[in-house]
Design brief:
alpha+beta, two-stranded antiparallel ribbon, 7 helices, 12% strand, globular
């Protein structure tokens, strides 16, 4: 009888543990101590929530962009294209992202995707002259997407496009907090998403957002 009682007690204990594991909620759910793990995977697969058409505001591509070679990139050249705007620097820990940006541009340019880089010394990590920056980007990373002339991207002297970005509401609006902040514009030139410096160009969420905007219309 003693052995039977002991066995029954052990079975009861196992059952209690199993019941707790099944109904404990916080202990078993991925949304408890490991909160965000499951949602993060979902976000990576589908990209960030993009604002609806009415919430995107006006086009930000309303004036020419002076390029690093002195020529002008006019708004019409970007009309109908999804555009990733990136403030860059040649001496930053995130500078190797140029390689990923070029790969993303190469993969999707024919679908109507463009990148425009904006070199800036606002964070004290850019080369002195436009010629040096141009040579650095082309020789080290094979950059072929347009690069703007070196200029400010923060403060009252920010280039017009970045001033318009900073004036838009969050979370997409606001000036860059560091080099390689990425702003995504739809085919109408409207701001829809922002990705911080640490987000790599091949990040699934960023790529998914680009693809969703590309799917909104064709050239």
């Amino acid at each position: 009888m003693g052995r039977i009682r002991t066995s029954l007690a052990l079975l009861a204990a196992v059952a209690a543990v199993a019941l707790a594991a099944g109904c404990g909620g916080d202990m078993a759910s991925p949304a408890a101590d490991d909160a965000g793990a499951a949602p993060a995977a979902s976000t990576a697969a589908t990209g960030p929530v993009l604002p609806g058409d009415r919430a995107r505001g006006p086009s930000l591509l309303t004036s020419p962009i002076t390029l690093i070679d002195g020529s002008a990139l006019r708004p019409g050249a970007l009309r109908g294209r999804v555009v990733l705007v990136v403030n860059t620097a040649s001496r930053c820990g995130f500078t190797p992202q140029f390689e990923g940006l070029e790969a993303l541009y190469d993969a999707k340019e024919a679908q109507g995707f463009s990148i425009v880089g904006f070199p800036s010394n606002d964070f004290r990590q850019e080369l002195a002259s436009g010629e040096e920056i141009k040579d650095f980007c082309e020789l080290n990373y094979g950059v072929s997407f347009p690069m703007a002339a070196k200029g400010r991207v923060t403060g009252s002297d920010a280039q017009p496009l970045f001033a318009r970005i900073a004036a838009r509401p969050g979370p997409a609006g606001d000036e860059p907090g560091w080099n390689f902040t990425k702003y995504l514009l739809d085919r109408e030139g409207r701001l829809v998403a922002r990705f911080d410096s640490s987000v790599e160009p091949d990040d699934p969420a960023l790529v998914a957002a680009v693809d969703r905007l590309l799917d909104e219309g064709e050239l």
